[in-house]
Amino acid sequence: MKISKEAFLRAWQNQKLVRGALKSAHVRLDYTNYEDFLLEGIIVYAEMLTKFTDMKQMEVDRLSFRKIIWHTIDLLRKDKQVAELEVPAEISGQIEQLNNWDNQLILAQELTEMSQLERMLFFNHLIEGQTISALARQTGISRVQLQRLKHNLLAHLREVLER
Length: 163
Description:
8 helices, elongated, Sigma-70 family RNA polymerase sigma factor, RNA_pol_sigma_r3/r4-like
């Protein structure tokens, strides 16, 4: 959709509405993509201003606020999916180190010392590429807790393999 210059300038001047919508979508100021979401919100707001020129400003603002929230939530969901898919590729270089016989022996020893949850995370997520969200649903453990466990497990394995 084409955005009029006046609508964009009005949206730019009313960033408070967009920032409020981002806050309602639970996007914090220190989030790495906050500025991107802010600009996306301004564009959505400008599109709404262009599309509904015949409506009252208050009504357009109310509709825009809701649309920015839903648009932001959709972007956050997409970011989460991309991040989950990138994790196995991120550690693929580390898994290639397993070709080294010494590393295989060390890893075999570490597997016996891992908890059942760590082994499940190692095999299902790191080796097979299953997503953290899917594992969270299967185990009933929160996604954040599984991500923390994965981070600690990878840090421990890195430390052990670098010795």
